[in-house]
Queue: 2 jobs
Job 1
Amino acid sequence: MDYIISILTFSGITLVGVLGAYLVTGLTGLFSFGQAAFLAVGAYSSAVLVTNYGVSFPVAVVIAMLLGLIAGLIVGVPTVRLRRDYISLVTFGFGEAIIAILNNSANLTGGAMGLSGIPQYTTFPVVLISVAVCLTIVVSYKYSKYGRQCLALRSDELAAKSMGINVNRLKLTTFLLASVITSYAGVLFAFYTSYVEPGAFGWVVSAEWLIIVFVGGINSLTGTVISALLLTSLPELLRFASEWRIFIYCAIVLVIINYRPTGIFGEYEFSWRSLKRIAARGGKAV
Amino acid sequence: MLIIQQLINGISLGSVYALIAVGFALVFNILKFSNFSHGGLMTLTAYMGYMGALFFMPYIGSIPLFCATILTAAAAGGITAIGVERLAFRRLRRNNSPLIYYFISSITMGILMENLVTIFASSNFYSYPKFFQSSVITVVGLNIAVSDFLMLFFSSAALGLLLWVLYRTKIGLAIRALSFDVNTASLMGMDSNRVVLATFIASGVLGGISGVFLGINYTLYPQLGQLIVKGFVASVIGGLGSISGAMIGAVLLGVVEVFLISFVGAGLAPAFVFIIMLAFLLVRPRGIAGVIVQEKA
Amino acid sequence: MSRLDVTNISKTFGGVRAVDNLSFSVDASSIVGIIGPNGAGKTTVFNLVTGVYEADSGQILLNGRDLRGLPQHEITRSGVARTFQNIRLFKGLSVLENVMTAADPHSTYNILDVLTLSRRKRQREKQVKELSRDFLNIVGLSHLENEKPENLPYGLQRKLEIARALATNPKVLLLDEPAAGLNPSEVRDFIDLVQRLHSDYKFSILVIEHRMEVIMTLCSHIYVLTFGKLLASGTPSEIQNNKEVLEAYIGEEDASCCI
């Protein structure tokens, strides 16, 4: 039971981070390859504040999210102006730069050895509530002028501009929201694993999140959620395969991408309305 | 004097980066996406080159061994590239999938290849055998490492060969045609499958050679492919969509990096490279030789 | 009101002078046509007015305000809307959402409203939905509001583009070959729609078309372009009898052909 709870907790933390990737890549079509960097910003800043400076946890969380916002501005402002192709490279570079800085600030962050002894404040209930809140925010964002305009600019940026959409500002707003949410995920992460080291925030993590979004289906938030839960637990389920498990994981993803490119869930989106409809129909059958 | 020394080191390093950048740019030109599996391919072929070196070592030594290693890696690279194209990209092309899926497929493929290396070679570090008796030659008071010299030589040769193929052969013409518009080219009777395959093979060969060079420079470890980021940065600076731009960008990157390392140390160099790249993009978003494609309404 | 005055605009691409010192104007609440052979620069003119390209020189005045150099979205928000020659609808959004997206820039709620699920947001969302439904109703697409735009037949896609342009609350509506690909009955339907919109909303309309039926029926004034330059300008009957226009389109009369 404990084992399942721990998998669910970790999946939940990953999901919060993935929601950031969903906003930037799924909704807006920006291929950001460095989202994990915000995870690092959130994790390290909160960890350092609490362990080195004795700041209280709630305050540290807020500061971490603010730092995430600032980092998002630094990367976002130049990035949103770039051609689509460059965004992946620039965000990738940002991610690697953050890791390099973290590796080289041994006195503050413990360098490559990492920071340990972080108190474990992240419990399953905390994660559950965090997921619920973040999911609500993302759903609210998707079904708002922001979400619609993001989808529009993802589909056809020129036409979007012609309909009066301020494309650059919208990209930046989405990017900033994602960076704040991801930083928060970083806080959850640090205070769950009790130990952070720069290598845990590399581009592979960003890649994994993108894979999750795509396997679930970029047009489906429901798909992203379920895919996050599935794919996070998959390596655990594949434990029996030991050293081959990443290989098998990649193989599965490749198969899905190639044979069902719209993702497992395609365009499907869960909605309360459809649930009510099913319930009503079920009632009639009786 | 020291500056010239650094410059030469930088150019030599840049030539290796050029191999990476061009291998990357070839695929980008035709399929219009960043092939993130290139790093994994480089790692895989670097190890295969190593196995080739071990195989030939009892029979030949020094320069012939060096050449044999390179050839093994190049061949391995070409063959692996065929596999990558077949497995990761062919179906996507057939289904006319949007660009984003190619990214995902390439990333996954890259992780898969890196993981293959980890499974078979574990996380130990390996080094290439010492190819040369004296490791440094002295010319006009400047020291050039023999390996650096040979890398510069072979990189230039490989790139020269590539340019010859691109501009003087039929398949090269086809590759260039397809990089303008895949659909029109196939309507004109070019077999896009064959041409794409040829491009991947060329990309793989270059990747294989660069893998060996990186392995010599940095020793062999499974994450070697992460140095692909140098190729990315070089391509961006040089201008996505331009082979010559990628070469120029790479050499520039090599030189800048060598000087940066002497100032801020190898640890922080990536951060500075990133800042320089950002600044460059802000000033000249299309890169040195890149092409702006203006969208028509 | 809705006056568009374009004075001496030019645009050169590489060595090609696509638009050459062109001037024209659209009076308030009028329908004006732009015609000319292919390659005359008509769509380029639209692109210059809407800010897709910046004109090298000249002035583009909307009610006296110069639009030249403004970013596209600002030009649209000033009141210039357009449809596209090659339909550019938003895939991934439903028919209704396509229209809502064009009305969204006018919504004033902010990100905090989204984060707190405020009443302001919910009310405005409802409003935008109703508004967009009205626009769909006007063009006759109400029954298809949840469809995917790419599943609609061509003629209906064109109507959706118009509904979407309407949602931006335009003062001037630019229609780029709106009747292309329509069969004769669809064309008549379309002409009716434009006349209805014009009398209901009173905005100005600038139309590029090759279908003379559309131009001659709708427009009070016509500009003829060729090779980026203005060839002729006048009322429909004046243009129909203009020798130069006929030559540009059909060619010179060759006496040896007459029997």
Note: Chain B has a mean pLDDT of 81.
Job 2
Amino acid sequence: MSTPVLHINDLTVRLPAGADRENAIKDVCLQVQPGETLCLVGESGSGKSVTAHAVMGLLPKKQLVAVAGNVLLQGEDLLEATPDRLRDLRGVGMAMIFQEPMTALNPVVPVGRQIEEMVRTHTKLSARDRVRKVIDLMASVHMPEPKRLRRSYPHQISGGQRQRVMIAMALALDPPLLIADEPTTALDVTTQAQILKLIKELQAKHGTGVLFITHDFGVVAEVADRVAVMQWGRIVETDTTHQILSEPKHPYTRMLVSTVPSLKPKIRKGDDSAPIVLSTKGLHKVYHDKGWMQRGRSVKAACDVNIQVRRGQTLGIVGESGSGKSTVARCIVRLIDPSAGRVYLDDVEVAKLSASDLRPHRRRIQIVFQDPYRSLNPRLIVGASIVEGPMNFGVSKADAWQRARELMEVVGLDPNSVDRFPHQFSGGQRQRICIARALAMQPEVLIADEPVSALDVSVQAQVLELLDDVRQRFNLAMLFITHDLRVAAQICDHVAVMHNGEVVEYGATRDVFNNPQKDYTKALFDAAPGKNWDFGLLRAK
Amino acid sequence: MTDNTEILIDSAAAANASARSVSTRYLLIRNPSVIIGGVILLVMVLIALTAPWLGTTDPTFIDPTYRNKKPGAERIVMDDSDAETLWVYRMGTDSLGRDVYSRVIYGAQVSLLVGVTVAVLSVLIGLVIGLLAGYLHWVDRIVMRFMDGLMAIPGILLAIALVSLWGAGLMTVILAILIPEIPRVVRLVRSVVLSIREEPYVESAISVGTPLPMILVRHLLPNTIAPLIVQGTYVCASAILVEAILSFLGTGIPPETPTWGNIMAEGRMLFRIYPHNIFFPGIFLALTVLAVNMLGDGLRDTLDPRLAKRLRA
């Protein structure tokens, strides 16, 4: 093999005093060869980003200090480099793309000018050549109409296009090393597939070495040549992608890989004769952008949605961001009022009930939200959050607290921790508490709005298991909203695929997954990262 | 293995959390602005409360024979039993022969009373209006337009107009300063409520059927406390200043009650010859306002670190 583009030797970065561990990363060794993609995988807090930032020289001064080891970029030690030298190297020697392209781009400068700035700083091209170069670069990342779009501001182009601009900027000067820090995490699955393809294509063309940071094993299976797994600041295993995914040696890697849900739908024996608890008929939600003295625009967030959920079954609503899946959930819970259509809870129509008439029905339908960090009032002990609902409906204080303790046990937490505050729990534990709060109302319908999207993959598996467990135990009808096809495959009896506010395909999970009918559904499944790799295999072993 | 992971993550999170709660309190006592501001303010409050025992005489006693004495002027006073005592005019006398020291000390009472009363009342009233306006759209539309109208008029001008309408006096001065301050507090509370009401935990509370007043008190009110305490100190400082300005302009508290503002107003004529008439009350006024503002800044830094970071950046 030739000399590596990036060679990290025993790198240790110290955390400030008072943190939960002494070092952010400890004794990290990595090599990235030219033309190779090394995936750095780990759960949140494992030190992936710190490693990347240390390479770029972007560690926050004085808070995080590299205390040992060295980082060699084509043989040059970056930790020894002067700030001036580092500035020269960024863009020319190495470049980075970030997770959120909206915040990584300057919102008040046209994107073409931002790419041009990169060229202007590091080369002596004339103004006309620079513009030509920018147009070439934008064409090379497959931006439509580069001549027109280079004058656009970041908010005028889509998220995928913003990420393309970031990539054009990063690769403007053909750096031998590209660091990609979760570049597709904020993107929809179809856009993600395009961006991954683009990175691969450009890498093949320029022979760039890529250090790709991700938490998603689907993405790993898609892009990586080799994989390094990080846990608590240490690299626990480095091997080829095939080895890591099929025969991981370290127990942590094994645990991580085996918790990735399979895309193959589970065989579920839902009782299709069970009574329908929740159904919608022609549900519409239109947002009017009514301004003062200006004509209103309207956006159809949900259009003619007809779904039904039977007792003891799970209906998944699958779709990309902006498809209207959360709007449907919020209309059903009446957090927002539907514009038209009906929502039936058993036989009761709840869509048009007034606030006071609705109140007795609130109990029967409960919701668990995506973000466990914002779903619990940070100033109340968790027990108080759990008993709030029952006490609203006249349950005595003693009974409600007794029930709260029982429910903490049901969701797998210590019943005595009811008097702790939310910040004393981890994300997965908070989501368990949210589930306990929903169960405290003894609901008939449980709506889960992306309940595991904010969680790490190992915790995600546990929470999914819990949700499925409580569904069975309390015979709940569950409406499960997710963008993650893998999760939907594992937990849903039926799925409804939504796109632009409409349900484009609706049926039993196995039918939809194995034999999608509509073009959009096919494209969606096709874009799922790592679709050719069945992570379930490892579990079976 | 997986359970183990979560427990470990959890203990780390818990350790972090407890470290954070300790450090807030720790920062509060360690913050230099809080200490300096707090100490000066405490001294001022003590001065105001113990004014009669601080070697003062009647601040309204007029003595035509001892007009315009410089600070440190001495006088021998005979009392009823012919015993002689040496009396020192620490800050001199004004053009009516009144003891400036006594007037300044007693003046602290009015200034602090006005400052604290306006701060407390504006925060309380603003809190109620702001909570309702932030949560109920129809209240918002009506109330906020009214508040916009109030904010369009310069505060001092409005206060002068109100005092001249109702006649001078402590109560009217407090009211006149209070009214222009309310919209600022309402806007603050409303903005906090608008951002918090979108939080999932508020939506959860709605979906478990919590009635509106409970949502306001339990879930929204606590989040407004920290910014309100900070805003309260700024209102207090501004009220002290506005009271002084009103008194200085002669539209505030009537001259028989000494306030820093009207002491300075009366000293204005002979300012070039006898600067002490303005100097001493001016120093007290400036120190007090500075102390309150420092306290406010310190509280903001510790109670609302995010805002502090934004301001510094």
Note: Chain B has a mean pLDDT of 82.
